[in-house]
Every structure is written in C-alpha cells, then in structure tokens.
Amino acid sequence: RMIHGCSWRHYPRAGGPGLFRRRERREDCGQPMTPPVYHFAYSRVRDRAVLRRHETDQRRRGPAMSEAYLRDYYASWGTGDPDRVAAFFAEAATFEDLAFEATFEGPAGVREFAKLTYTGVPDFRVEPVRIVIDGTSAAAAWEMTGTHRGDLPGLPATGKPFRVRASSLIRFGEARIVEMVDYWNPVQFQRQVGLV
Predict the structure, then answer these.
(1) Which helix (H) or strand (E) holds 184?
(2) Distance between CA atoms of residues 172 and 42, nearest Å
(3) What is the pTM of this model?
(4) Which of 21, 89, 149, 175 is most buried, by the most CB atoms less than 10 A from its CB?
(5) From residue 27, how far is each of 11, 21, 36 by CA, in Å?
(6) How far is CA 185 from CA 40, 56, 147, 164, 174, in A?
(7) Cβ neighbourhood burial of 89 (10 Å; 0-12, 13-18, 19+)
(8) Kind of pairing between the strands at 2-3 and 137-147
(9) pLDDT, tens digit (0-9, with 9 covering 90-100), for 23-69
(10) Residue 142 burial class via C-beta count within 10 angstroms: exposed 0-12, middle 13-18, buried 19 and up
(11) Which string of DSSP letters, residue by residue, matches 64-76?
C-alpha cells in the first residue's frame, strides 16, 4: 500500500518464517525509510501451519531410515535364514536385482530370492562399506562374499570363492524397506569363480 508516496513491501525474514514489512523509498517520497517491522502474529500462524504440514508428511512417509537398520539387514544375509532377510521388507515392497534382471514382490518374493542365493552360495555374506541416508531414502556400497558351491541360473557350481563389490538404492516406509535396487557386475563374479 502507499503511505505519503512511499510503498510498503514484504520480505522473507532471514533465519526463520515470517515477514519483514519495509517501506521502500521512492523519488517523490519525502519520508525517511522506516526500520523493518516483523509481524510476529503472522509468524506464529505460519509456524503452526509448517509444523502441521511436516507432521502430516512424516505420518505419510513413516519413520526415517537409520543406518543401524540397514546394517542389521545386511547382517541378516549372513545367517542363512531367508525368513530373517524377508522380515526387513514391507508387504508392498519390491526388490530388483539388475544383474539377474529379476524383480521380486513383497517379503515372499524376497524370501524366494534368498533361498535361491543360499542354494548357490550357502556361506553367502554381505559386508556394508558405506551407507548414506537422506530421510526415507538411502544408498549403500557393500561387498558380497561366499563360495559358489551350488548351481545358479546359468551359472553352474565351481566351488570357488568370490568377493564382488555392489551397491543399492533403497526407499523406506511403513517401518520397513519398500523398494530396493541392487547393482553388481556379473562378469566380475563369473571371472572370480572361473566361468569366464
């Protein structure tokens, strides 16, 4: 609005919600610039709105992922128990292994994948190297180790050990993993176990 030929404008308050109201000088304005006036009432209303929106988003997404949870998940692969591995996944979860070009749905699908893995590599282990978390998303670098004692799809048993680097992209929700995509190099695995 205009007061004595000067215009009032609102500016974001640095360091927090709310607005400053500052009078801008114009050529035809003979009034001096006034110091900023902070609208505390507006700040309180906006703070409550931001908090409610944050709480709603948090309930929708569920609890944030933790590094401890992912380390427990990777450690579960060393137990040889498919049920324990599958317990980390939500009912609507998807697990994709790009090397095998296969996608598994829900805990039941993950359980079948784990059984297949233990059939070919009974001593299968996963060692996390680095985990980076951002809210409900995460990325992990890890190494899988074991001995290729059984047949895998297109990979007959050789009895040789391997250590292959890998990575995962992960999304968390419903207090469980809802999406995981694993990346690893099958040629590196085949080379180490003597198939190429």
Answers:
(1) strand 176-184
(2) 35
(3) 0.69
(4) 89
(5) 21, 20, 20
(6) 58, 40, 17, 8, 31
(7) buried
(8) unpaired
(9) 444 444 555 555 554 444 555 666 677 667 756 665 555 556 899 99
(10) buried
(11) PP-HHHHHHHHHH
